């Protein structure tokens, strides 16, 4: 029984990569630990090691192939020991309340001999662990077909959100010498998530600045540089780490204009990924949008599509006010149509990303994709959902939400975040205050469960918003 | 630039941005590293006032010389049995790291961080402290947990997030937590462990307890305010704590100069706070042991904290998500002038006549077999690829000591969802 070697997932968010190089050929004997191939992603180049011993029977994906999906069988190894895997520990489907407690491990760890229960071949061959919520077969889901707003006749290009953000920064840096970017790993490493790719080469170390590891320090420096006449873009590796810096964001950047009688402004952009990614657990998965959206003096933006990411980041950089710009790691690799050229998206304007008549789904950031895919499901059941992408959370485009409500009379808010004191709570509150007469059903909230985000894939999936949750809430709002 | 003032008579300012001695394509260059001979740095008494030993922060405590002899005033004079025990733990740590790194490449876990080349920093400290002294580590001190006897199997179960995971599928693979082994829950937000260690140590002093605390941070995170707040409190209240700075030269792609190591040493941070500072060869496990024992004695005598800079080298990538080939010279690690910690202790043991290459090769092979055996057992309980091996109900526990009504309600909903998905 040959062992299948599958395209590995080098990180939890990797969906595909380039098989850069084979270091073995068919017929070669390999043993555990041999480097057999090099795999490239947008983040890094990685050596791919053999797990088991055997002979390379066939190479199925030639070197230099781009876009190899994670999990694709790339080669077959004929194992010397052909004993099949026992299958223990795989897909056993233990029910919720019947999981055995962990067996006691031996004291003193490895000094104690343990009988090997399986042969070497019993070690599983490469398993890919990547899970994607969206089916990728056939047509692209509605969540990836968002049309950008641009003047008629504007040409578009296909860009990832990551590229769109980079382009926005590069264009603004070319146009305005005061603009610079600083943060951990933004220069030499091209950004922890490669959002600043290429900026060091083009703009040099004076304008693309690697900082020491001190979010509090460089947020304060940024605020000072903004007061000093520059236009800083401060990248946080994640907004979770910006908790160290929040005093400078909230007490300095947001309030200085007001407290100085309008004399001193802090035109600065704080940007970086926010919210859950894939298996980065409690301390790296928090959505801070409601926190910042409650602060007078801040502009808070959380785009979904690449076009909005680019157009809104350009507006943010040009803004005279401090902007908290919340990105999403899972969206970085998603591709959308983006208008070419200097197209900005205005701050404070929501977008109707899907027209509908029966229920309004209000969301922002990654929740918009969930809402759009839920709308596709709802359409199969005869419910036409309108999807509003808030895009800017402060100031919030209440009129857009109320106009849609007047049409559909039902609102469900979809938010990848905790339920209490959320953006969803805020929408529910102003809709009740200003749109009460248009409501035919209570405003419903679809949010994550109210626990710190767990790490394990299945728990994480259960804890986060899902398409069926939105479908169920929309049907409830429609009394269906 | 619109706001740039024009003042013809004054010189223009310019900004200094530190650059490492080499980038990819360059030959590795450690000519800036001054390697003092083993035995050359003096050993003050552990009761010496900080200001009377200020030179120590620019020295380099080394015990093992190139020939493999233990020399000089810092030689801890450990028995061959203790030395062998330390060697075993370092070898186990390296093998464990290799196996888990590969497991990530196989999709059995999402993330891993190796401590390769830095094993002495953790293992040396473990043997110099009491087993109930409290540890506030960061993510390359797994050797300390292994030295204390925490089962590898539990570590693997957490890395795999399987049904034997002692943290119930909640925490990242390498962020271990064990109250029983006096090891706090590793935090992914850099620097926070340092003031927490000082606070724990102050609590121990307030309670007239006898236990001390130790914490570890990379040199990169000494830039965080937390490090400096911690130093202030540790100095003011003479907290019984050891503040370890592991200077492994690289914070992902940022070399140690970016963190402030270009103009001075990290041990020299101690001077401004009036804290005792030691700068030691972090690849010399005897130096690590001796310095840790010195600092522990000082702390136990109510003489306050010590900052120890462990001068070492991150031999491999930052993590499984990182490729150092993009920012540092290839084979830079091979040029590292302080060698490999396992090789150096092995050479010393051979020199003592207590060890030989054959026995070392046998230890290596034995350890690989033993770790693989534990790994197979752990994998029977599942790996990341499996979706069904957790008690999902536990997801709602421990948010609070007692589950509030709204979480009980959400748990019931989740159980119903799982049930519906299954049927």
Automatic annotation (TrEMBL), chain B:
Gene3D superfamilies per the record? 3.40.50.970
CDD domains in the cross-refs: TPP_E1_PDC_ADC_BCADC (cd02000)
Question: Catalyzes what?
Answer: N(6)-[(R)-lipoyl]-L-lysyl-[protein] + 3-methyl-2-oxobutanoate + H(+) = N(6)-[(R)-S(8)-2-methylpropanoyldihydrolipoyl]-L-lysyl-[protein] + CO2
Biological process per Gene Ontology, one example term: branched-chain amino acid catabolic process
Q: What are its cofactors?
A: thiamine diphosphate
The UniProt record lists the 2-oxoisovalerate dehydrogenase E1 alpha subunit N-terminal domain at 11-50
As for family, the record states: Belongs to the BCKDHA family.
Q: What does this protein do?
A: The branched-chain alpha-keto dehydrogenase complex catalyzes the overall conversion of alpha-keto acids to acyl-CoA and CO(2). It contains multiple copies of three enzymatic components: branched-chain alpha-keto acid decarboxylase (E1), lipoamide acyltransferase (E2) and lipoamide dehydrogenase (E3).
What is the protein name stated in its UniProt record? Answer: 2-oxoisovalerate dehydrogenase subunit alpha
Q: Which organism is it from?
A: uncultured Sphingomonadaceae bacterium
